Amino acid sequence: MLTNSLEILLADRIWIAVALLHRELPNREDFSKDEIRRKLQETDLATGTKPGSVSAHLKEHLIANVHTTSTKYIMMYETRPGFLRLFRPGDFVDQCRQSRPAKQVPRKEQLPLEYQSLLDWYETWSKQHPSPEKPNWQDDPLIRLIGSGHHIWADEHADEYVENLRREEA
Questions:
Q1: Which of 69, 114, 158, 168 has its CA 20 to 30 A from that of 146?
Q2: Is residue 33 part of a domain?
Q3: Does 119 share its domain with 143?
């Protein structure tokens, strides 16, 4: 049951709901937006919220890897269209959210007492479930071709090289 002594931000309410889902269903990687809405309802975290605001938060405001023009939270990560999980350090963050420090988790003092333990749970969970490693571009065979063949036109400008090739064909 939600403690009414604190005014909880909608972003924090949604984070709580997703954290609860992760904790209750540890074998699930992600959750649909409808599952998250249901969890908000079950826990009374949706009390006093507008459905449109919840939708905006689940579509854009909280999602680290989605371009935004407004809030810069990075609390969720979209794993596939319509499915979210909690953000983990190392996840891709859209460039528009990197301009300033972005909120990743709720502040402990802004959470009701019954949900504060989720922050400790999250710290452990995020370390046990690291984000997939970023691709090593040096291993990509096409990327390794960058610069190969530069010796062909090393002693002349590229435009001159192309012009010489055209003359040879004529």
A1: 168
A2: yes
A3: no
pLDDT by residue, tens only, the chain of 170 residues: 454 445 899 999 999 999 999 999 999 999 999 999 999 999 999 888 888 999 999 999 999 999 887 778 999 999 999 999 999 988 888 888 877 778 999 999 999 999 999 999 999 999 887 776 555 556 667 767 777 777 766 778 878 888 888 888 87
50 and 117 fall within a common domain = yes
Q: Are residues 34 and 118 in the same domain?
A: yes
- Backbone Cα Rg of the chain: 24
91 strand-pairing partners: none
Say if residues 22 and 85 touch (Cβ distance below 8 Å).
yes
Torsion of CA 9, 111, 14, 76, to 10 degrees: 100
Q: How far apart, in Å, are the Cα atoms of 95 and each of 72, 78, 102, 136?
A: 10, 15, 12, 19
Could you tell me the residue range of the domain that residue 18 belongs to? 10-128
